[in-house]
């Protein structure tokens, strides 16, 4: 069946980010091809946010509030429960869609029919309020089918800018409610494995980068859990490949580190808060990564010689650098004023 605008709903998830949410909803409403827009509040602490949103958009949206807090990923299941169309796009309250998102997804589905998941690329809106475009693709055409073997290793579906078949998602059990950090990758991979996935080369959305403490990814980085959780997801993906496709691929941690070294800036910024176990785990990953530059290699040597504790000491240097950088920005702002 041909995908049409009336088959699509955009669900904007809301918790407490009133400084971003109105822009997110506007981007969903201001599509060149209009579709249904719902707002799903996950029982947030801001009791006035519903009045703010409904007062701004009225009957252009349909507003739902979960009776209890379901958490980030289970709220996606709530979005599927409230949705009354066969296709759904989930937009977080701090991200944005380009006006051509729906139009581009319709064109992609017409070109590559029969997939359970369609998605595009996202630029990034940094805290300096500048938008940075996604790197150019090397596919040689305007779209690509997603290779499940590559998808098992790396998550290509970055928020926002996704569109998926609800029936397909339900057939694989939806989102695991207890997922933590990689719940999106887990859903997309299982969905693509069952029904296929295609990506357009076009930019269709803007992902906002910020360091608010309400971001789950910040909490994960602060605890040092990111790569442990990602590696656990890779193992799950490879198990599914073996069970469903008969593809036998072993998990090679060091091979992945040669392609994707652990960012030293994340370790230096957050290592002071790591437990002893997570510090040792991340230090091992770091010393087995392929160094992208000389400074990285020097830090690796220091960790090998002096042990993981050097990363905690390095935090002090990072904190000083961060403070000095912010001070320079503040002083420049005062001069401009």
Write the layout of secondary structure elements.
Elements: E1 8-14, H1 18-29, E2 36-41, H2 49-57, E3 62-65, H3 72-82, E4 87-92, E5 96-97, H4 101-111, E6 117-125, E7 131-132, E8 143-145, H5 148-153, E9 162-165, H6 166-171, H7 183-195, E10 197-208, H8 216-223, H9 226-245, H10 253-259, H11 264-270, H12 276-287, H13 294-306, H14 309-336
Parallel strand pairs: 1-2, 1-4, 2-3, 6-10
Antiparallel strand pairs: 4-9, 5-10, 6-7, 6-9, 8-10
Written overview of the protein:
By secondary structure, the protein is an alpha/beta fold. It folds into two domains: 5-209, Spore Coat Polysaccharide Biosynthesis Protein SpsA, Chain A; 217-331, no CATH class. Helix content is 48%, strand content 16%. The chain contains 14 helices and ten strands. The chain has helices spanning 18-29, 49-57, 72-82, 101-111, 148-153, 166-171, 183-195, 216-223, 226-245, 253-259, 264-270, 276-287, 294-306, 309-336, and strands at 8-14, 36-41, 62-65, 87-92, 96-97, 117-125, 131-132, 143-145, 162-165, 197-208. Strands 1, 2, 3, 4, 5, 6, 7, 8, 9 and 10 form a ten-stranded mixed beta sheet that branches. Helix 2 links the parallel strand 2 (36-41) and strand 3 (62-65). It is globular, with a radius of gyration of 21 Å.
Keywords:
alpha/beta, ten-stranded mixed beta sheet, 337 residues, single chain, 48% helix, Spore Coat Polysaccharide Biosynthesis Protein SpsA, Chain A, 2 domains
